[in-house]
């Protein structure tokens, strides 16, 4: 799953010379405000930025931060956010056009909702209209899709855990889990590709 | 209270001021409520094209965000040299939340200029 599907259509925006006082309520409820000069993206402001840069105008409170691509995975987004200490990041396409922003809170909510989602993999008996090879290919496609999300959750969750680990043993265990998950991901990808090519 | 007569006491004085309020250099503390973008835009309205914003790196001063320098001074002295002088003689006395006006006059003199006899 990539982050493009998590972008909000109606995000809070303000001009660069808006007063920070006028943005206080929005920042408390929305966790960030996108600062746009017309349609040009200038930057993001989060409540943390207000503390780091206590100025009167929005443009003076903007903190420089990396941008994500809409194709980035949840795991990559969480990694960039936690390693840089950012609570929200902008998402831009390959042309540099601003598409929206994503918060750490939204990423975590999405991750947790995946824990509770129902997984259904249908096994359909092959018939004359639905040959065995097609049934096998569809089954593998379903399997790859439904195993992809939990594996991604394991990677994201273990990454978050690894940020606070002090013991070397725990760190090795987490690395072992992550390595095994990556092996599984590669295995499923290879299996699906092999069927797609056959 | 309602029946009491209200009286005003007013004391006033006035004097002309020059705009913009700085002539040479303005030092901006890192936590000054009016941030550097707000200040440079205000100055552009008061004195278009006259001042330039120079960011101050953390290794020069952790208290100072930027300095606003009159372009006439920059014509006579490079920004790096100006920052060196300010970091020695001004920055140590500036608090994070302050803006400090600096009078900064640059004189240039040459010695031994040989003029060929025509």
What is the CATH class name of the largest domain in chain A? Alpha Beta
Order of helices and strands of chain B: EHEEHHE
Question: Biggest protein-protein interface?
Answer: A-B, 10 and 9 residues
Distance between the termini of chain B: 92 Å
Largest beta-sheet characterization of chain A: 3 strands, mixed
In spatial order, strands of the major sheet of chain A run 1-2-3
Mean pLDDT of chain A: 85
Cα separation of the termini of chain A? 26 Å
Helix content of chain A: 40-55%
Beta content of chain A: 5-15%
Given helix and strand content, the structural type of chain B is: alpha+beta
Helix content of chain B: 10-25%
- H-E order of chain A: EHEEHHHEEHHH
Spatial ordering of strands, largest sheet of chain B: 2-3-1-4
Gross geometry of chain B: elongated
Structural summary, described in words:
The complex is a heterodimer of chains A (198) and B (118). Chain A is an alpha+beta fold and 198 residues long. Chain A folds into two domains: 111 residues, CBS-domain (Roll), CATH 3.10.580; 80 residues. Helix content of chain A is 54%, strand content 12%. In chain A, a hairpin with a 5-residue loop joins strand 4 and strand 5. The two termini of chain A are 26 Å apart. The longest helix of chain B has 11 residues. Helices cover 24% and strands 18% of the residues of chain B. The chains are: A alpha+beta (198), B alpha+beta (118).
What's the layout of helices and strands?
The complex is a heterodimer of chains A (198) and B (118).
Chain A: E1 13-14, H1 20-30, E2 33-37, E3 40-45, H2 47-52, H3 58-61, H4 74-84, E4 88-92, E5 98-103, H5 104-116, H6 132-162, H7 168-197
Parallel strand pairs in A: 1-2
Antiparallel strand pairs in A: 2-3, 4-5
Helix pairs in contact in A: 4-5, 4-6, 5-6, 6-7
Chain B: E1 25-29, H1 36-46, E2 51-55, E3 64-70, H2 71-76, H3 79-89, E4 99-102
Antiparallel strand pairs in B: 1-3, 1-4, 2-3
Features:
heterodimer, A: 198 residues, alpha+beta, CBS-domain, 2 domains, 3-stranded mixed β-sheet, two-stranded antiparallel sheet, 12% strand, B: 118 residues, 4 strands, elongated
């Amino acid at each position: 799953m990539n982050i493009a599907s998590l972008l909000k259509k109606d995000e809070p925006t303000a001009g660069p010379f808006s007063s920070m006082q006028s943005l206080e309520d929005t920042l408390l409820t929305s966790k960030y405000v996108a600062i746009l000069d017309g349609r040009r993206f200038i930057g993001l402001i989060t409540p943390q930025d207000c503390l780091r840069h206590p100025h009167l105008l929005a443009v003076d409170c903007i903190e420089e931060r990396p941008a994500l691509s809409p194709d980035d995975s949840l795991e990559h987004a969480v990694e960039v956010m936690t390693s840089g200490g950012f609570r929200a990041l902008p998402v831009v396409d390959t042309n540099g056009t601003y598409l929206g922003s994503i918060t750490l809170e939204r990423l975590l909510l999405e991750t947790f909702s995946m824990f509770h989602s129902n997984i259904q993999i249908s096994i359909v008996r092959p018939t004359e209209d639905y040959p065995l090879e097609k049934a096998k290919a569809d089954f593998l496609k379903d399997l790859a899709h439904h195993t992809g999300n939990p594996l991604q959750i394991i990677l994201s969750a273990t990454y978050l855990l690894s940020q606070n680990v002090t013991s070397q043993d725990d760190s090795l265990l987490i690395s072992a889990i992550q390595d095994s998950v990556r092996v599984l991901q590669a295995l499923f990808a290879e299996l699906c590709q092999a069927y797609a090519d056959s | 209270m309602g029946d009491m007569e209200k009286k005003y006491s007013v004391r006033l004085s006035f004097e002309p001021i020059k705009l913009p309020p700085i002539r040479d250099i303005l030092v901006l503390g890192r936590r000054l409520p009016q941030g550097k973008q707000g200040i440079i835009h205000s100055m552009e309205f008061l004195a278009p094209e006259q001042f330039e914003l120079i960011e101050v790196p953390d290794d020069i001063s952790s208290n100072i965000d930027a300095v606003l320098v009159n372009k006439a001074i920059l014509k006579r002295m490079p920004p790096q040299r100006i920052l060196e002088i300010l970091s020695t003689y001004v920055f140590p006395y500036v608090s994070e939340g302050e803006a400090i006006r600096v009078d900064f006059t640059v004189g240039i003199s040459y010695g031994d200029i040989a003029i060929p006899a025509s």
